[in-house]
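Before a colleague's protein record goes any further, I have to sign it off. What it holds is a sequence and that sequence's fold in token form. My question to you is simply how this chain folds and whether the tokens agree. Thanks in advance; the entry in question is below:
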Amino acid sequence: MRITRWTPYNDFQTLQSSLNRVFQDFNRGGDELTTGGTFVPPVDIYENEQDISLKMEVPGVSQDDLKINLENNTLSISGERKFEKNEKEENFHRIERRYGSFTRSFTLPNTVDSEKVNATYENGILSIHLAKKAEAKPKQIKVNVGSAKPEIKGASTAA
């Protein structure tokens, strides 16, 4: 009889490998996962004193397939990256890129001026700039030094 050390992590690794094989086999056989999988493009959002900017990675998406809608302080971006059937799917060794339709929605603060929205698309990056309303921008207030009293209009200085 031989005593061996039991490590529970080896069992988890074996289970993980088995699950990976199952999903790989399913992925090869089903058209749904390769061409209609969930495609969620990543977004960076940046804010400064003048505007809010969004940059979304959507390589392979035609400009005509992008739709941007701003309604009730909600910015919605939708589009579709289409799987090109130029090559036979059985000739692929691996399909890792995601295809299909996507929709991303963002709730915007009330400080955004919905009349001043600009969108550009270049090198697979969709950039959207949302200008802030004038009253929402920070204001500089000058502080006076000394004991100067504020003047009150209409007040009499004679005693």
